[in-house]
Structures are given as C-alpha cells and as structure tokens.
C-alpha cells in the first residue's frame, strides 16, 4: 500500500484517480481545497456558497480513509435539512465509502455511534440531544461541521457538544464564519483548536486564520466556473408532512377514478401532494423552509436571493415566517407595486430576498441583481422555469448565478424532477436556447408521477396548471 507522504495537489490528484476514483474532474481551486483539508488537523474551509465545499470535504476524507490508517471513522454534523444532501454527495463522489445517516431514537443512535461505519452523518439537533453521554469517547477520528456558524453561541448546548467531542482532526465548513461579532469566529477556531480560548485578541484571530482558513470567492475563481451553478438539495419530509402525504397518496386510485375528467383529477391530486411537500398546513412544519433558511444564511449578508414558487399561498406562508427582510412579487400586484418591490430589491439597501410567483417572475422582468435563485417547488414545464431563471442571468454579470432546487425524497417531486430532466437540460436551456419551448405533461407522464400504470384509456394532449 502506498502511503501519502505529500499533500501537494499533483500527488493527491494522482492518488485520487488511482484509488479513490473521483468520478468527475474537480476544478483546480477544489483540488487546492482538498489538499488544504487533507494536510490539516484543524481547518476552516470558508469558500463562498456554490464553490463546492461539500465535494472538497468528501474527496479529502475519502483520501484520508483510504490509505494512511490515520483516520478510521468520520462524523459529519450538518443542519438536519442538509444531512440527506451529504449522503447524496458521498454516494456521488465516494461511492466506495460506506456511510450511514444517523437516525432513529436514542438507542438506535447509540448503536450507530458504535458501529464501525467509516462515515456517519448526523444533525446538530441530534448531537445536542445525545451529548457526550451517548457517544463513545473513541468513536471518531475526524469531526466535520457543515454550516459551522451554527456553533457560534459559545455557551449553547449545541456548541459545547460539538467542541467537547473527542477527536484528532477537526474540519469546519462555512461560507459565513463571521456574521456579526468577532466571538462568532473565535468559537469556530476553538472547535479547531481547543486551546484557542474566547479571551484571544483580534490579532490572535487574524494570525490563526492565516494558517487555519482557506476562503475563495466566486470572483477569485470565475475563470473556472460555469455561468450557472446548479445545486439540487434533496430533503426528507417531517413526521407530520410524511403522515399527511402518505394518507393522501394511499387514496390516489379512488381519488382519480372518482372524477369525471381524468386529467383534471390527476392534476388536482398532484397539486395537493405538491402542497404537502411544501408545508403541512395544520402543524405549520416544512423541511423546505428549514432548508431555505440555511441557504439564505450560507449565502451571506450581501447575497440577493429570489425564491420562486408556483403557489401564491406558499409564498404568503413563507413570507409570514421568514426572518430576513424580503419583498413579494405575485401576478395580482398592479404594475406600480411590482416596480416598487423590484426597485427595493435591486437597490440592495434592505430586502435580501424576493419571493416571486413563478409565472409572474417569468414574464417581462429584469432581475439581474440576484446572486441566488431557489426553486421552492418545480413547475410542470421546464421552459417556464428556465425563462424565469433567465431573467436573473445577465450575460454581462461577473459572477455565476447559483440556482438551488429543492426536491423531496420518496415523493412525486422525485418523479417530476426525473421527467423534467428528460425533457430539457437546465444549463442548455439557459445558456444555449433560453427561449426554447417545452411541453406540458401528457397522460402517460401523469400516470408515471402517480404510480398508476394501468389507468383508463389514454386521452390526447398535454395539460398544464396555472398559478
């Protein structure tokens, strides 16, 4: 077995190709990030959102776990809404690496902590509940904190649980390690090095960051980036959402066949299921809202984020719960109100987010000031989505546009996403042919979404649903 005695980019690239099998070439700056993490016992990777911090961490941990026998087990701690995304990235970039997601009750989690699984992915909430009482002291060699700004409150139970975990290596990933106070980043540095206390001065922080932090902005590496960065975030439904979704899903045969018009009945059911994927109206829970808040937090104070949904009521619901300043833009607003909302968003003075009805945002608007777009739910027609995104994609913009799409696992959203992917590639539609026309969903596709393979006789034509 060849041990890695060097962490230079060329050596890591060669070993990764021979033993780890990175499926897609990384950008040069990403290899530099892999090298930085690989050689560090305490590292803060603070790249701007969209530059692939997770991918760099996955490749670096795969290299560590593969050849040196220095690291046997890794614990990844992330916001609950991102744990599924971590599993997807591990599967994509290190499929040879056994990984499990921390789940179940307290006893189940204790068993998972003790199993010899190379990579375990859990949430901050789980770590807060379990603390050191349930986690064996020698369980993990490397602990990775994603969205590490979550531990900034030094005396919180979550922060203490993370910082007191026994380990030999510590990595922190955060696009916004210093949000408001110097103490925020001191706590992260204290996670990387327990000897770095809260009484350290500003100059001590600066010195430590010189050796412990690697940060790149999109402007630093724009020559390596595509015009549009596309990120799919897969989510699990919460308990109440899943219960309500499964109950409705179980009635689909009688629901659809009881209607006089097949297409209308199918779309009515799909719409109700999509709304549940967005939120549970009775309990007020929404895994997508949690994920949206994480995206906004990661994007930073200077980001301008457009959130698209096909449902106006969903936008109203988000507006009533979103903590950051924001504006709404829906089709029912008169022209003066629409222009005023857009002007406030463009000015960058106050609103960080603009909540837009997908149909309203796709026609006659120039939203080029946006840095990020979030598709809270997916439209039936990829051309409508792409037209809306194209409004924010100025061809003279300096930095790439970051597009995030939420997809709920084990739901019709996965089926819809698969069909949309077959119909059109997002990048090509934005950059190569943004005005391309797409088709709605025909009966066969509706049955595929609903898992109904033996339906009534086929009806001609494709159908769509207006906002």
Structural commentary:
The protein has 2 domains: 9-224, Tandem AAA-ATPase domain (Rossmann fold); 228-450, P-loop containing nucleotide triphosphate hydrolases (Rossmann fold), CATH 3.40.50. Helices cover 44% and strands 13% of the residues. The chain has 20 helices and 13 strands. It has helices at 9-20, 28-39, 53-67, 83-93, 106-114, 124-134, 157-163, 182-192, 202-212, 239-249, 252-257, 262-278, 287-299, 312-319, 335-347, 358-361, 382-390, 412-423, 426-432, 443-450, and strands spanning 42-45, 74-78, 99-101, 119-123, 142-146, 169-173, 213-214, 228-235, 305-309, 326-329, 353-357, 372-375, 401-408. The strands form 2 sheets. A 7-stranded parallel sheet has the order 3-4-2-5-6-1-7, sandwiched between helices. The relative contact order is 0.10. Residues 1-5, 426-439 and 454-467 have low confidence and may be disordered.
| Strand content range | 5-15%
**What's the story with the biggest beta sheet?**
7 strands, parallel
Q: Return the CATH architecture of the largest domain.
A: 3-Layer(aba) Sandwich
Give the averaged pLDDT, no decimals: 79
**So, the CATH homologous superfamily of the largest domain?**
P-loop containing nucleotide triphosphate hydrolases
The tally of helices reads 20
What is the CATH topology descriptor of the largest domain? Rossmann fold
CATH class (first level) name of the largest domain:
Alpha Beta
Helical residues, percent = 40-55%
Structural class: alpha/beta
Query: What's the shape?
Result: globular
Q: Reading side by side through the largest sheet, how are the strands ordered?
A: 3-4-2-5-6-1-7
The N- to C-terminal Cα distance equals: 60 Å
Number of E-type strands: 13
Low-confidence stretches: 1-5, 426-439, 454-467
């Amino acid at each position: 077995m060849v041990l890695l005695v060097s962490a230079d980019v060329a050596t890591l690239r060669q070993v990764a190709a021979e033993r780890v099998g990175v499926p897609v070439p990384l950008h040069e700056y990403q290899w530099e990030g892999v090298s930085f993490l690989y050689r560090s016992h305490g590292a803060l990777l603070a790249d701007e959102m969209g530059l692939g911090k997770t991918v760099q961490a996955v490749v670096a941990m795969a290299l560590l776990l593969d050849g040196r026998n220095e690291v046997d087990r890794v614990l990844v701690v992330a916001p609950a809404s991102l744990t599924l995304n971590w599993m997807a990235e591990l599967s994509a970039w290190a499929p040879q690496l056994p990984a499990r997601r921390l789940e179940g009750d307290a006893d189940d989690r204790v068993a998972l902590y003790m199993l010899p699984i190379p990579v375990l992915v859990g949430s901050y909430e789980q770590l807060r509940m379990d603390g050191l009482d349930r986690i064996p002291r020698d369980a993990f060699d490397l602990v990775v904190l994603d969205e590490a700004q979550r531990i900034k409150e030094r005396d919180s139970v979550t922060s203490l649980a993370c910082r007191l975990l026994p380990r030999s290596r510590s990595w922190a990933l955060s696009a916004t390690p210093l949000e408001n106070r110097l103490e925020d980043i001191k706590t992260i540095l204290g996670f990387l090095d327990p000897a770095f206390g809260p009484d350290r001065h500003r100059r001590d922080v600066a010195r430590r960051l010189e050796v412990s932090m690697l940060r790149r902005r999109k402007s630093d590496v724009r020559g390596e980036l595509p015009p549009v960065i596309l990120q799919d975030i897969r989510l699990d439904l919460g308990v109440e959402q899943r219960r309500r979704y499964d109950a409705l899903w179980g009635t689909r045969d009688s629901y659809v066949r009881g209607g006089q018009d097949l297409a209308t009945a199918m779309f009515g059911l799909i719409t109700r299921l999509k709304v549940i994927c967005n939120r549970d109206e009775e309990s007020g829970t929404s895994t997508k809202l949690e994920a949206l808040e994480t995206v906004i937090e990661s994007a930073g104070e200077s980001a301008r984020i457009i959130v698209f949904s096909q449902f106006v009521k969903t936008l109203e619901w988000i507006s009533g719960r979103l903590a950051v300043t924001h504006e709404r833009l829906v089709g029912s607003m008169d022209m003066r109100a629409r222009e005023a909302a857009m002007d406030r968003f463009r000015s960058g003075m106050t609103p960080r987010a603009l909540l837009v009805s997908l149909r309203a945002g796709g026609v006659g608007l120039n939203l080029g000031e946006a840095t990020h777009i979030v598709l809270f739910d997916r439209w039936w027609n990829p051309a409508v989505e792409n037209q809306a995104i194209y409004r924010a994609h100025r061809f003279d913009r300096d930095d790439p546009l970051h597009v995030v799409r939420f997809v709920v696992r084990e739901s019709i959203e996965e089926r819809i996403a698969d069909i949309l992917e077959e119909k059109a590639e997002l990048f090509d539609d934005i950059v190569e042919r943004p005005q391309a026309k797409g088709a709605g969903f025909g009966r066969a596709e509706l049955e595929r979404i609903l898992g109904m393979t033996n339906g009534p006789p086929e009806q001609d034509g494709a159908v769509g649903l207006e906002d």
